[in-house]
Amino acid sequence: MPETTTESAELYSAIEESARLLGVSCSADSVRPVLSTYEDALPHAVICFRVATDERHAGELNCHLMMLPKDVDPYALALSDGLIQPTGHPVGALLADIAQRCPIDSYGIDFGVVSGFQKAWAIFPADRMQQLSTLADIPSMPKSLAGNLGFFTDRGVEGNACLVGVDYARRTANVYFGELPDGCLEPDAVRSMHREIGLPEPSERMVTVARQAFGFYTTLSWDSPRIERISFSVMTPDPLALPIEFDPTIEHFVTSVPYGTDGPKIVYAAMTATGEEYCKLQTYYRWRPRILSFMQLADGGAGG
């Protein structure tokens, strides 16, 4: 592993400080090995912190490193450095299988300050979004993608996959969509999405947030034929202006975190199978305008 650099040390301090705002204990044993493994990529990475409002994610702060070089599989690197253990499950093969069949622009990873390495993303070139039929043919992809192609085709996004996320901890995969067709996120369309995959009716608050989204993603698993979740991605300079109830701790984080105060923030709004609506709030420690192309936004999209 490379020696710890000034940049790595500064990022660790920022993570530690951000976690403190949430009352979360930052584990050096979980964070420092990840920063060491991806040390060489840190100067070029988009770096963001994410906190969620639901009970399942309580007591955790996540850090994302995006736009990592495409010549190194981040999952293979995590395995080689002992950040994660090998598994015979298809989740362990998915990232490499995607790279064999699809063009990769860059990668990303996610780790928790408590739990350590969790996820990786394969990011496709902005001008070469992928067909779901191509992704569905990948042997290690959850079969629920192929089984639900009609859901995506009906909404005009069958050729609009811009990245795939692989959650090794929960053994799920996320497929993200950009450049959504007109009307895709109108209130009735959002209600129809939830109804068709068997989720409860979304609240008016959820529908209002979804209408402002620049994209959405779905969660799939290897254990179910269903689409398990839909999450809507909203970019905003002021998350507290959205019709979302944040608890006092997260409000304090939003108003006090010293990083990315002048940059955009992203809110992901979703619903659990039981009908609990929650969100994930993402603020940027280091923002790079180039990432806008991977969100399928116009140049002015960061403003609201």
Question: Element order, helices and strands?
Answer: HHEEHHEEHHHEEHHEEHEE
Shape: globular
For the termini, the CA-CA separation is 41 Å
- SS-based class: alpha+beta
- Using DSSP, what is the number of strands? 10
Integer average pLDDT:
90
List the domain count as a whole number. 1
Give the biggest sheet.
Answer: 10 strands, antiparallel, barrel
Radius of gyration: 18 Å
Strand percentage lies at 15-25%
Describe it for me?
This protein is of the alpha+beta class and 304 residues long. It has one domain (6-297). The chain has helices spanning 6-21, 28-37, 74-80, 94-101, 132-136, 143-147, 149-154, 187-196, 204-211, 248-256; strands at 46-52, 62-68, 106-112, 116-123, 161-167, 172-177, 215-221, 229-236, 265-271, 277-286. The model is unreliable at 296-304 (pLDDT under 50).
Outline the secondary-structure elements:
Blueprint: H1 6-21, H2 28-37, E1 46-52, E2 62-68, H3 74-80, H4 94-101, E3 106-112, E4 116-123, H5 132-136, H6 143-147, H7 149-154, E5 161-167, E6 172-177, H8 187-196, H9 204-211, E7 215-221, E8 229-236, H10 248-256, E9 265-271, E10 277-286
Antiparallel strand pairs: 1-2, 1-10, 2-3, 3-4, 4-5, 5-6, 6-7, 7-8, 8-9, 9-10
Structure characteristics:
304 residues; 10 helices; alpha+beta; ten-stranded antiparallel barrel
In short:
This protein is α+β, with helices and mostly antiparallel strands and 304 residues long.
